[in-house]
Amino acid sequence: MGVTIIPEIIRESLNNLVKNGERSDDRSFDDYRDIYLETGVISKAEGSARVKIGKTQIMVGAKPQIGEPFSDTPNVGVLMTNSELIPMASPDFEPGPPDERSVELARVTDRCMREAGVVDLEKLCIIEGKKVWMIFLDLHIIDYDGNLMDAAVLGSMAALMDTKIPEARVEDDEVVIDPEKKVPLPIKEKALMCTFAKIGGELIVDPSLEEEQVMDARISLGMRADGSICAMQKGGMHPLNKDEILKAVERTGEITKKLMEHLPQNNQ
Amino acid sequence: MITIITNKILGKNSTSSKRADGRASDELRPFKIEAGVLERADGSAYLELGGNKVIVAVYGPRELHIRRLMQPDRAVLRCRYNMAPFSVDDRKRPGPDRRSVEISKITSEALMPAVFLEKFPRSTIDVFIEVLEAEGGTRCAGITAASVALADAGVPMRDLVVACAAGKFEGEVVLDLSEVEDKDGEADVPVAIMPRTGEITLLQSDGNLTPEEFGKALNLAIEGCMKLSEAQKEAIIKRYGD
User: How far is C-alpha A33 from the chain's CA centre?
Assistant: First the structure.
């Protein structure tokens, strides 16, 4: 992955802006950029979404496959998240196997959805110990302008809510799939992620690319609709103190509530 | 801003054609091309053709870091054709496979003749083609969109390469095979041309055709190219004016 060099003058000016309570695009510290969300954009995917936060753009597709459950959870379906920071999205992204940023993005997204219990995975079991539905969530990052985490989780949530899987029945120990009959994925929770960047000693929500490039640290919080925290990930070269983290948690409640309004109202 | 048409209406059964979607034998699927759809890329384009959805980004000319690829007298043009895992019925495993490696290579060869590579020694022009949804004919869709993205990036070119396939389905030579026709059909002939001179920059053929049928398919594909070529120009005019 290439390294973009940030001129000192930009670093200083962004830091100074934040110290004066401002940001380069005139947002307040708790404001997201414009959010755009559209579902059902890929007809071949059983569920899909396109999400934009500012200029950051992600396509998310959900595809089900029948597979074997993990041996320690024989009656539970599988949700797998995979991400590709494709070179289209930024001059810094290179083709090739997923690098650490891509793996982190996929794993954090996965954790957020899984720990929140977004999908009722037990309902995805077809034959205990043998056959379960595996839902693959693929994050395709096509334009990178900062804050991939929140966009990824928002897009994933929307794509899962959009997903319809074929009905699977068991006849003589064989799985019979009826592709004509589609049933919505059993969604039992909603969760979204909210990311803060620490710049100029303050935590600001939804860092743009410019802000990410100069931030000291980052913290992402996954929160369920009921306000409980389902995932958290700190990033960046510098530490955060406890107060900062608690403040972030406190602010996330209100911010996530607003963010939830972007999701489709009902499952399907 | 891309508006994705989530349509499933491919043809309206107006003609008495044998084709599954009711198109005439020389009829393209509905299409649209948009230039400049991405923020970060130097140039970009989005194309829909029937159920295909393809997005292309161009970076460069820019510094080439891999020294062994560097050409002292011209730029290299690298293509990466990639299918999103969700673009097909059975999830495609991410990453390159033999098919996408081959398509990447022929795509770059299809585009290269049109680009003034000699203006940019020791550098690279990178073309990234992402197939978001596939419905037959993605390599051609990728090439057609890639030219528009190159133009959008301001890369100097002799012409806008455009590609289209023809083939044979149930004994008839037809233009622009759909997914069904591609799978069940007898032959597929993807063609790319430089419309100003008519020079062909890509030609493949897969399946059995008599020489007459091949000639007919080639002509048909070129006709299809000319129609798409108009849409390419319109996309650029729409973005930049005359």
Answer: 16
What's the gap in Å between the CA of A212 and the closest CA on chain B? 15
Q: Which CATH superfamily is domain A8-260 in?
A: GHMP Kinase, N-terminal domain (3.30.230.70)
Task: Please check whether residue B59 is in contact with residue B76, taking contact to mean a CB–CB distance below 8 angstroms.
Answer: no
Contact across the interface for B84 and A59, Cβ inside 8 Å: yes
Q: pTM of the full predicted structure?
A: 0.83
Q: Do B6 and A41 touch (CB under 8 A)?
A: yes
| Measured distance CA(B123)–CA(B77) in Å, rounded | 9
Chain B residues in contact with A162 by the CB 8 A cut-off are none
Q: Which CATH architecture has domain B31-237?
A: 2-Layer Sandwich (3.30)
Chain A interface residues (partner B, CB cutoff 8 A): 38, 40-45, 48, 50, 55, 57, 59, 61-63, 65, 82, 84, 86-91, 95, 97, 136, 138, 140, 142-145
Q: Out of B41, B85, B133, whose CB is closest to A136?
A: B85
| Domain residue ranges in chain A | 8-260
ipTM, two decimals: 0.70
Question: Residues of A with CB below 8 A from B8's CB?
Answer: 43
Residue B86: which of A45, A97, A142 has the nearest Cβ? A45
Distance CA B23, CA B10 (A): 8
pLDDT in tens, chain A (268 residues): 445 678 889 999 999 999 999 999 999 999 999 999 999 999 999 999 999 999 999 999 999 999 999 989 999 999 999 999 999 999 989 888 888 889 899 999 999 999 899 999 999 999 999 999 999 999 999 999 999 999 999 999 999 999 999 999 998 888 899 888 999 999 999 999 999 999 999 999 999 999 999 999 999 999 999 988 999 898 888 888 888 988 999 999 999 999 999 998 765 4
Q: Which one of B8, B84, B95 has the shortest CB-CB distance to A140?
A: B84
Residue ranges of the domains in chain B?
31-237
Residue of B5, B46, B80, B91 to mutate, testing the A interface (most A Cβ within 10 Å of its Cβ): B91
Contact B39, B140 (CB under 8 A): no
For A51-100, give the DSSP string: EEETTEEEEEEEEEEEEPPPTT-TT--EEEEEEEE-GGG-TT--SSS--H
In this complex, which of B4, B80, B95 lies closest to A87 when CB atoms are compared?
A: B80
Cα–Cα distance for residue pair A19/A197, rounded to 1 Å:
13
